[in-house]
Amino acid sequence: MLGILSGMDVNESMPWVEKYRPKTLDEVIDQEEVVKSLRTVLRTKVMPHMLFAGPPGVGKTATAHAFARDLFGPEYIDVGLFMEINASDERGIDTIREKVKNFARTIPLGGVGFKILLLDESDQLTDEAQHAFRRVMEQFSSTCRFILAANYSSRIIEPIQSRCTVFRFRPIDERHVVEALKRISARENLSINEGATNAIVNLSEGDLRRAINLLQVSATLSSKIDEEVVYRVAGVARAADVRRLLELAVAGRLVEARDALRNVLYVNGVSERELLVQIYREVFYLSIPEEKKLKAVSLLGEIDYRISQGATPEVQLVTFLSHLASYASEGKGR
């Protein structure tokens, strides 16, 4: 996880995600099983190829850097023992043939006996590039170890997965997100109330990177951060507003529901895709029969697809609200 450091010598203007990144494995939190295994590797100096798998913002890349620093020392990048490549930027076979191969083939200096190459976003590599990468892993395993970081391990071909020890990263627990927000707020001289903290935790959904970014953007508006500021910078609607929107539709007050929808979209500037996600969260709590909730969720997926294909968002969302109204009236008539 992106740990919270103390006494860091950092550029105050840098992004807070980088500013508060852990320097050592001791500062990685809420990934105890992964850290325990990596400490064993540090102790034995016997390192397999590794696949870090898990959702975004839980510390896969940060953990790889912290591990390399603990293994090679603070100058791990400058001495040429560690290299990071982001496969989402360079996802073709040429990257594997040139950058990866050239780094992996050179004999490392120092007593460890191998170098480390971090292939971030490795699930973005094309199949052709992944097969080329598998051959590189086989050829240069004596001089280089590979850490692959992926949001979706299922997109990594089986021959690569079978050559790696897989470490599963989990979403960051809410308690640790709250602790991180409080620590950063204290260091940055911010005042953040409980409502704002809860809003950031709910919006980030275990993604600490997003939580820290939301806090930093909120701080650009005010040093006193409340729930209203967080929702404004996040570009999402308040849960209460979405719930009221759906309840108006369920009550059959479609014109009022449409007006509330327009207020959310055009006055508050909420993205229609974000609104769809929020509606999905709230629809299960509506006072309509369970089978109607299933139909509503199915329709919501269809509307999401239509909007992605260029349909008018307001028309599609009003269509959804009208179906909610009809579901409610059917339930009352039974």
Describe this structure in words.
- This protein has 334 residues and is an alpha/beta fold.
- The protein folds into three domains: 31-168, Rossmann fold, CATH 3.40.50.300; 174-234, Orthogonal Bundle (Helicase, Ruva Protein, domain 3); 239-333, Up-down Bundle (Zinc Finger, Delta Prime, domain 3).
- It is 55% helix and 10% strand.
- It contains 15 helices and seven strands.
- The protein has helices at residues 16-19, 32-44, 60-72, 93-105, 127-139, 158-161, 174-187, 194-204, 208-221, 227-234, 239-250, 254-267, 272-283, 290-308, 313-333, and strands at 49-53, 82-86, 115-120, 144-150, 164-168, 191-192, 224-225.
- A five-stranded parallel sheet has the order 2-3-4-1-5. A two-stranded parallel sheet has the order 6-7.
- Helix 8 (194-204) packs across helix 9 and helix 11 (239-250) packs across helix 13.
- The longest helix has 21 residues, at 313-333.
- The protein is elongated and about 75 Å long.
- The termini are far apart.
- The relative contact order is 0.09.
- Mean pLDDT is 87; it is low at 1-10.
Which CATH top level class of the largest domain fits?
Alpha Beta
The helix content is 55-70%
Q: Helical element count?
A: 15
Structural class: alpha/beta
- Average pLDDT, rounded to a whole number, is 87
At the third CATH level, what is the topology name of the largest domain? Answer: Rossmann fold
Q: CATH superfamily name of the largest domain? A: P-loop containing nucleotide triphosphate hydrolases
Q: Total strand count, please?
A: 7
The biggest beta sheet, please? 5 strands, parallel
Series of H and E elements = HHEHEHEHEHEHEHHEHHHHHH
Distance between the termini: 52 Å
Low-confidence stretches: 1-10
